[in-house]
Amino acid sequence: MKQMLMSVGAKQVVEICANVKKDETVCIVTEPKTLSIAEAISIAVSNVGAEPIITIIKPRIADSTEPPEAVAETMRKSDVFISAVYTSITHTHAVKNAIESGSRGIMLTQFDENMLIDSGVLADFPAAAPTCEKVGALLENANEIHLTTIYGTDLKMTAKGRKSNSMTGMVKAGQFAPVPTIEANVSPNEGSAEGVIVVNSSIPYIGIGILNENVICEVKDGFITSISGGKEAEILSEDLKNKNDKFVYNIAEIGVGLNPRCKFNGLMLEDEGVYGSVHIGIGSSITLGGNVKANCHYDLIMTGVTLVIDGKTVIKNGEVLV
């Protein structure tokens, strides 16, 4: 029964998001914990007359750890790759090389079966795309991006010379998109971010999820310099410290959530897509247009946002004005 219910979301992922066509080869990367997701996707791929290849990998030791070389090569040679894993492989050279080779990718990180039944996956992706593209156009080459929230965030950065990413949840050749998040993002110039981040909603990694207490991050010269708050701040601080990599503190991304169907549930790609939320990505930026490869990429998600780009107010107190 559950597999039947999951078929609706799987069909949406395969036919709308990935636009899989007859006779295409689709590489589905999964791990034991998410195998049922991969199987549902595989059935949907077969139903359109395409060829599914399921590759099961051991769970990566941390987010942004590369998949095995043979899997990366299969991704690169496929028409489409779909990553249905719990531990993220999104911000890796494997993904970067695959899209540069003309493949197109869908990332289903931290999925559970219910997300194929009732979640942001069931959004009207074509209808949401124009707003996403407009916000992306504003972020691109922005001279000054100013983010504030009612909780105390006050962060400035520049994306001068940087291309943005309008991740509509639908991909063409040479593109990848996380699903179900619909988001516009840009990787700011390294070293440009200054101010304070007060994370009030979610850090959907390392067992944190929806926050009980705000996490406060001081930012100087593009790096987080201190993390304070309660227990969840301690978990984040200790995890980053144990990475033994100064670049995990890099301000890698500013992203705007634009999926009207997404709701906070503590899972990464649902939380990031919540309409009118903003997340600051830290760590790796190589798949977003930046130059940093770090030992992780985490997103710090906020609500109650006001976002001003080159003097234009794009979000005011959580209301998207574009």
Please, what is the average pLDDT? 96
Main sheet: which strands, in order across?
Answer: 14-13-10-6-5-18-19-20
Q: Provide the domain count.
A: 2
The rounded Rg comes to 18 Å
Distance between the termini: 41 Å
Return the string of H and E elements. Answer: HEHEHEHEHEEEEEEEEEEHEHEEEEE
What structural category characterises the helix and strand content?
Answer: alpha+beta
Shape: globular
Number of strands: 20
Percent in strands: 25-35%
Largest sheet: 8 strands, antiparallel
Helix-residue proportion: 10-25%
Task: Explain what you see.
The protein has helices at residues 2-17, 35-47, 69-77, 93-100, 125-139, 231-242, 268-271; strands at 25-30, 51-56, 80-84, 104-107, 145-149, 154-157, 164-167, 176-178, 183-186, 194-199, 202-203, 209-210, 215-220, 223-229, 251-257, 278-283, 297-302, 305-309, 312-316, 319-320. The protein is an alpha+beta fold and 322 residues long. The chain has two domains: 2-118, Thermophilic metalloprotease-like; 124-320, no CATH class. The protein has an eight-stranded antiparallel sheet with strand order 14-13-10-6-5-18-19-20. Strands 2-1-3-4-8 form a five-stranded parallel sheet, with helices on both faces. The chain has a five-stranded antiparallel sheet with strand order 7-9-15-16-17. Strand 13 and strand 14 form a beta hairpin. The longest helix is centred in the N-terminal third of the chain and has 16 residues, at 2-17. It is globular and about 50 Å long. It starts with a helix and ends with a strand. The model has no long low-confidence stretch (mean pLDDT 96).
